[in-house]
Write a structure and sequence with these properties.
Elements (H helix, E strand, L loop, with lengths): L8 H12 L17 H15 L10 H8 L5 E4 L2 E4 H15 L4 H5 L3 H32 L19 H14 L12
Antiparallel strand pairs: 1-2
């Protein structure tokens, strides 16, 4: 008999990647549970729990993590010796939340409570950070245009003497020049 396989961060990240592909949960190999596969299922969720929850991985609860993930445009998450783009986490959380509200709700509700909780914590943590990332990006975009009428100030210092009405007029005029197609845009959250 083969020794039991140890599940780790690579397995948890592979599972997150599968979730990010926006498939139905019942189509993922993880959820095609047979009796012989029960232990693998349990160990995979334990690996995901260890990756997401302190004390095993305190990264998710550290204050500076918000800054580490929020400020750069492209973020790479390192877990042990494996890396994954932050966008994979965000896509997985959004897909899981979408499927949990509709087609895959029954699959999730049939999970043992601790496994359901692992997935719920994953979605909550990632969606919270992603919401902050989007808010930061919007704030950066709104500060990039306007509020700079003085040339003697460094680029990182806002010009608080600039009248707000002029800033808005400049922003509106510049938006009229940019005519991007409005089809196939994802809904704003």
């Amino acid at each position: 008999m083969d020794p039991p396989r140890a599940f780790g961060s690579a397995d948890a990240l592979a599972f997150i990647r599968a979730l990010a592909e926006d498939n139905h949960l019942s189509c993922l190999p993880t959820f095609e549970v047979e009796e012989s596969n029960d232990d693998c299922f349990i160990h995979l969720f334990e690996a995901l729990r260890r990756m997401m929850n302190p004390p095993c991985t305190p990264w998710w609860t550290r204050v500076w993590v918000v800054q580490e993930v929020m400020i750069p445009k492209d973020v790479i998450v390192l877990c042990s010796s494996i890396s994954a783009p932050w966008s994979m986490f965000a896509d997985a959380a959004l897909a899981l939340a979408k499927h949990a509200k509709s087609c895959c709700a029954k699959v999730l509700w049939n999970l043992p409570r601790d496994q359901f909780t692992v997935l719920a914590h994953f979605v909550d943590r990632v969606k919270d950070i992603e919401m902050l990332r989007k808010a930061h990006a919007r704030a950066q975009n709104s500060m990039d245009i306007g509020r700079k009428f003085r040339t003697d100030l460094p680029s990182w210092v806002p010009d608080w003497d600039a009248p707000a009405g002029q800033t808005n007029d400049i922003r509106i005029a510049s938006m009229a020049l940019y005519r991007a197609p409005r089809t196939n845009l994802p809904p704003e959250n």
